[in-house]
Amino acid sequence: MNVPPTGYVDLQVNGYGGVDFNSDDLTAEGLHAACLAMQRDGVAAALATVITDTVERMTHRLQRLADLRERDGLARSILVGLHIEGPFISPEPGFVGAHPRDAVRPADHEVMQRLLDAAGGLTRIVTLAPEADPGQRVTRRLVEQGVLVSAGHSNASLDQLDAAIDAGLSMWTHLGNGCPMQLHRHDNPIQRALARADRLWLCFIADGVHVDFPALGNYLRLGGDRAIVVTDAMAAAGLGPGRHRIARWELDVGDDLAVWAPDRSHLVGSAMTMARARIHLSERLGLTDERIAALTRDHALAALRSSGHPDLRPPAASSGPASRDSA
User: From the CB of residue 17, how many other CB atoms can be counted at a distance below 10 Å?
Assistant: First the structure.
């Protein structure tokens, strides 16, 4: 799982280039095309992300991704693992976000193991809500298996967050999202996570929509050497503004590359690329090239290594683009 010495590392990619990683009908050609599109846009490594659904559908999608990746050299090069986001998240309105509420459930070790088995040893991150895992049994077992546990879609109290951190939780997924637009101005999950910035990797979507740029600048400063930029890309990523049909929805993607549900009640991910995030970080926040490289690559690699994957390291020299294996 060597990562080329240049390029972006994106820990949260739900789809790309018109291809949905959460589709039951994902094809080998589709996965290859998505990886080609990511490579074209400068992505060196990414985690394909499967979100909340029924356990049966999630296991099918994880196994499909793992199987198709195994048969494709480019996919093995770009997709260095899988990120399972849910189903152990908060069902509260606002916190559940775009995840189907009827598929959300309390943390369960047997269900978690089914998902891990379906992913074929490729799971690198699991996002869950600490309050959905009382006693932190699932969190502890995941950490023991070398999986990085991340809070997300959560309204965990500070005590619940601290208990999860003590059990090994070490990240917060797309902080500033997966929560209602209206929150208590001081006591809210964003402030709780920032209060533990010395113990958490903090991930942010740098499109200016999921988090406004002034707030993003503040959060990145507080995150310091543990801040990470992700895209939360969905299938429209890399296609640019316009109307795109994704699964059952016709989605309008604006110039800001934000993707809203048809009724505009909530965001459903981003169509932003990491290259666009880099422009935002430079032009809107005035960050240096060195800081941008840390946010879009180095810190993500460090987070993955911290969970027991030291093989995620740059080789002495890039071997160039990988080619697709013949089936």
Answer: 20
Interacting residues of 211 by C-beta distance below 8 A, sequence separation 6+? 175, 176, 177, 204, 205, 219
Give the mean model confidence (pLDDT) for residues 240-245: 75
Name, in order, each residue with C-beta under 8 angstroms of 208's C-beta and a sequence gap of 6 or more: 216, 256, 280, 284
> Residue 137: is it exposed, middle or buried by C-beta count within 10 angstroms (0-12/13-18/19+)?
middle
Over range 206-228, report the average pLDDT. Answer: 96
Q: Which domains does the chain have, with CATH numbers?
A: 8-306 (3.20.20.140)
pLDDT digits (tens, 9 = 90+) for 276-299: 999 999 999 999 999 999 999 999
pLDDT computed for residue 315 by the predictor? 33
pTM recorded for the entire structure = 0.91
Tens of pLDDT along 229-238? 999 999 989 8
End-to-end CA distance of the chain: 21
Token pair 């990619």 is found at 13
Residue 82 β-bridge partners: 48, 123
Mean pLDDT of 226-251: 82
Average pLDDT, the chain: 90
CB 95 within 8 A of CB 131: no
Measured CA to CA in angstroms, residue 324 lies from 21, 29, 38, 57, 158 at distances of: 18, 10, 15, 27, 47
**DSSP H/E element including 291:** helix 289-293
User: Burial of 298 by CB count in 10 Å (0-12 exposed, 13-18 middle, 19+ buried)?
Assistant: middle
Which burial class, exposed, middle or buried, applies to 302 when counting CB atoms under 10 A from its CB (0-12, 13-18, 19+)? middle
Mean pLDDT of 110-135: 98
249 and 263 Cβ atoms separated by less than 8 Å = no
